[in-house]
Fold this sequence. Notes:
The protein has helices at residues 8-20, 26-33, 38-42, 50-53, 66-78, 87-104, 114-126, 151-154, 167-206, and strands at residues 60-64, 130-136, 141-147, 161-165, 210-213, 218-221. It is an alpha+beta fold.
Amino acid sequence: MVFTEQTGLENLYSIVNYCIDKKTCKRILIAKHFNDDVWEKNGDCNQMCDHCKDTNSNQIEKIDVFEEACFVLSVLENTKSDKKLTSNKLAELVYSGIVSKNKKSDHYPNNLNQTEVENLILTMLMNSYLKEDFHFTPYNTICYVVAGPLSKHLRNDSCFYIDRTSSHSSKAASIEKLAKPELAEKNESKELKTRKRNLDMNASSDSCELIFDQNNSEIMPKSKKVLW
């Protein structure tokens, strides 16, 4: 396991940074890992990696998530002493807490989604605001997340940044635009069905009921029945 090696966690966090870094060419990150400066001198990879390929379509912006980072620490502090949280559980609690508070008031205007909350927790881990606490059992090793050595300094700061692609809001808007025509189409089809059903009912009520006249031995409309 990586935590048993001297530089295991450091190497693991470099892999995590490779995954969540949205500003650096992937080839340059790999070159840094192998201490190879050839790729760095040659520049970007000519749109061979996902970062350089999406640079034109997605603009990277820094957002201040200081309030959300403090909320992460408060969730850990409010956890009972006999209970500890894994990273997945912590992300779940933070995300649900942000959503519930934003329903009452716009307390967290960034409106982080689940993935961005996970990126926030990973960024705090790599910057020592959080740390991993390993517990060993006879069958497996459980990794919990606790407050890190720099957690006390976070509240004295005034900002904490993570990266977000500018397509975050545009994607939500496009999804909403796509949903509106579908909803309108459903409502329109429902309205047409209702109108057709009403027309059928009116037609059936206006039609004359035919009965058999025994004297004339013919079928006559009920409204024109002759009384002898």
